[in-house]
Write a structure and sequence with these properties.
Helix content: 25-40%
Largest sheet: 6 strands, mixed
Radius of gyration: 22 Å
Strand order of the largest sheet: 1-6-8-9-3-14
Number of strands: 16
Shape: globular
CATH topology of the largest domain: Chloramphenicol Acetyltransferase
CATH superfamily of the largest domain: Chloramphenicol acetyltransferase-like domain
Order of helices and strands: EEHEHEEEHHEEEHHHEHHEEHHHEEEEH
Length: 444
């Protein structure tokens, strides 16, 4: 599909400035060099009258965004460098607001974009705004609303040093609630923005040393390298698929006492599919293989987090996890998935006991052999569809546009609820079909 975008409006949504200067925590600082979170939410107009005129949708989105930003001041702020101390902070007093783009891309068909398992990567990229993040000050958020053939797309770009996945969905849920007029939901729990509540060993000096390590040329920021334009494909696992795989793993291990979680199950299937798709050309049977993922540090009472970080904390609050296995174990036809699940579960238990052990996840990710390492982000608990009803029904499709490397997997709860999982995968074209054939085989 060849599409072009015509910008109809490029304005700003301005909210009153907020006084706090929020210095980044150590858990924020590592993410300063990570590419943007660009996510698109698609709405297909089925001709049933649920969609108001495009101009009305834009007006509602703009007005509700202003209301929501007043409750989420860091998103209307700027990430700034404080040379006198070497700190980086979110300045909520800037007052210049958030970029709000209105576009027309009717060469892109909403139903095709929402319905295809294979992503139209070029078209998706047209539906999300950009943020300039290679130097500070940098904006935290930009929004784009795009008219499509037969639908509408709402795209956001958010700075990863300001938000993690949980914060993204907290914001989108509040914005959608405000847009559809659900005051109770829009004015839910008051988020905690103060980075000072993230008390980890090392304090402010740990933050500064982390910034010097990963962004030594501040206010210039050299971003983590990405591999743009790689193929992406999305699979939907039903609750029945997942229950069947959990039972299969139980049968292979001979114990129901260690039934894996939904996350462990889906990650194990993806990891095995990744390894098998690259064997024997890239991954030999004697190679070590790796799976990296993240643990949410909110609410944890162990491993140096004292006091616990509030469940309502709004920021980047992640620590790293790394599962290891031998390719031989994952390639085994009889119990490869069980071996993968056991390795992942071992790392989940480790993270539960000591979540901060791998907080500096970038240090080990940089050393991994990239062709033998897979990454899983997102969560099976992110209710991506239920939370993005802006007043014209649940979204038809949502995807993370910025999938940065081959072997990246992104998880959200599947549309329709019921325990299903949407699994989106970025792979090199030489291995995507192989991954798909192995992954789908698990669903049969």
């Amino acid at each position: 599909m060849t599409s072009t975008t015509k910008i109809l409006e490029d304005s700003r949504v301005v909210v009153p400035p907020s006084p706090p200067l929020l210095k980044l925590s150590a858990l924020d600082a590592t993410w300063l060099i990570v590419p943007l979170i660009q996510r698109v939410v698609l709405f297909v107009d089925n001709g049933d009258g649920d969609h108001p005129p495009f101009a009305s949708m834009v007006a509602s989105l703009r007005a509700s965004l202003a209301l929501t930003l007043a409750r989420f001041p860091p998103l209307a702020g700027r990430i700034v460098f404080l040379p006198s101390t070497g700190d980086v902070a979110i300045d909520c007093s800037d007052g210049s607001g958030v970029r709000f783009v209105v576009a027309d891309c009717q060469g892109a068909d909403a139903a095709s974009l929402a319905g295809g398992a294979d992503h139209d990567v070029a078209a998706f990229k047209l539906l999300v705004p950009e943020l300039e993040t290679n130097a500070l000050p940098a904006e935290a958020l930009a929004v784009q609303v795009t008219r499509l053939k037969g639908g509408v797309a709402v795209g956001v770009a958010m700075h990863h040093a300001v938000v993690d996945g949980r914060s993204v969905w907290t914001f989108l849920e509040a914005w959608a609630a405000a847009c559809r007029g659900d005051t109770a939901a829009a004015d839910g729990a008051v988020p905690e923005f103060d980075r000072a509540v993230v008390k980890v060993p090392g304090g402010e000096e740990l933050v500064r040393s982390t910034l010097r390590k990963y962004a030594p040329d501040l206010p210039l920021v050299t971003k983590f390298p990405v591999a743009p334009g790689l193929p992406r494909r999305t699979f939907t696992m039903t609750a029945q698929h997942i229950r069947r795989q959990k039972q299969r793993i139980d049968d292979l291990t001979g114990s129901s006492a260690t039934t894996p979680s939904t996350f462990v199950t889906v990650a194990a299937l993806a990891w095995v599919s990744f390894v098998r798709s690259k064997h024997p050309i890239v991954i030999s049977i004697d190679h070590d293989v790796y799976l990296s993922f993240f643990v949410d540090c909110r609410g944890r009472r162990c491993g140096g987090i004292d006091p616990p970080i509030s469940e309502d904390y709004f920021g980047t609050c992640l620590s790293g996890c790394l599962a290891r296995a031998t390719a031989r174990d994952l390639l085994a036809e009889d119990n490869g998935v069980a071996a993968a699940a056991a390795a992942i579960q071992k790392e989940v238990r480790r993270a539960g006991e000591d979540p901060l052990a791998l907080w500096d996840w970038m240090a080990y990710v940089r050393t991994l052999p990239r062709d033998r390492a897979m990454n899983v982000s997102g969560s099976t608990r992110f209710q991506a569809y239920e939370t993005t009803d802006f007043g014209w029904g649940q979204s038809s499709r949502t995807e993370l546009v910025t999938m940065n490397r081959s072997g990246q997997v992104v998880l959200v709860a599947a549309k329709g609820g019921g325990g299903g999982v949407q699994t989106s995968v970025c792979m090199h074209p030489d291995h995507m079909d192989g991954f798909s054939s192995h992954f789908v085989k698990f669903l049969d």
